[in-house]
Amino acid sequence: MITVDKARQHLLALGLKDAAEVLEARLERAAKQDVTYADFLVDLLETELAVRRRRYLDTRTKLARLPFRKTLEDFDFEAQPSIDPRQIRELATLRFLGNAENVIFLGPPGVGKTHLAVSLGLAAIDRGYGVYFTPMHRLIEDLRNAYEERRLERRMRIYLAPKLLIIDELGHLPLDKVGATVFFQLVAARYERGSIVLTSNQTFADWGEVFGDPVIATAILDRLLHHSHVINIRGESYRLREKRRSGVLRSAVEPQQDE
Predict the structure, then answer these.
(1) Taken in order 78, 84, 88, 89, is the CA torsion positive or negative?
(2) Measured between alpha carbons, how far is 185 from 175 in angstroms, rounded to an integer?
(3) Strands 228-232 and 131-135, how do they pair?
(4) Does the keyword Nucleotide-binding apply (predicted)?
(5) Does residue 144 lie within any of the structural domains?
(6) What is the CB neighbour count within 10 angstroms for residue 100?
(7) In terms of C-beta density within 10 A (0-12 exposed, 13-18 middle, 19 or more buried), how is residue 256 classed?
(8) CA Rg, the chain, in Å?
(9) pLDDT at residue 221 above 60?
């Protein structure tokens, strides 16, 4: 045990805390399985590396401010037949990040746009890319405040730094002139430098109304669409479908038949 204790102390001194914690268990398993010294060492170090990687991914995910953790494996493609699974899986290879291309998910509320955006974000984090998620209304509010306080350029760096910027729910609220202008500046600054994944419940034809100015909407679309993948999602909301299956929606919106 003196040798084991000394080995544990050495591991702790080297900063290998997790390997130190499982040392005895790994020694017992190695003795039972009669593994080589090299195999035992590899097993011990892989334990340390696995815990460190999990901790790293947890930290990067928190910094990305993702609203939840859902992967492509969690997505129900059968419920949304308008989506081509092959196209989404191709996006999940993240080649679009290397080319600084954008991904735009269009469709009504509840069809899985945010789920798909987050899943691409998680895939990017897993590959070591910087990711940041923000709802559109929070992004505009933040940049508008920075503009009014004359610190827009400095604040803009928060949204220019990550390789992947995810902007959720464009179109839920119309923008004023300042909001539209600062958003254009952000899109222009990231153009051909970093990728944007964007979700919107508005068709491109309606963006002029969203931004309050057809000219600035055209300028934004020109940069977003130049190198982009556009996925139009049609179909019923997941949430409404579940309500209908449970009978809640029917009883709420359909008239009761006379007995």
Answers:
(1) positive
(2) 14
(3) unpaired
(4) yes
(5) yes
(6) 15
(7) exposed
(8) 25
(9) yes
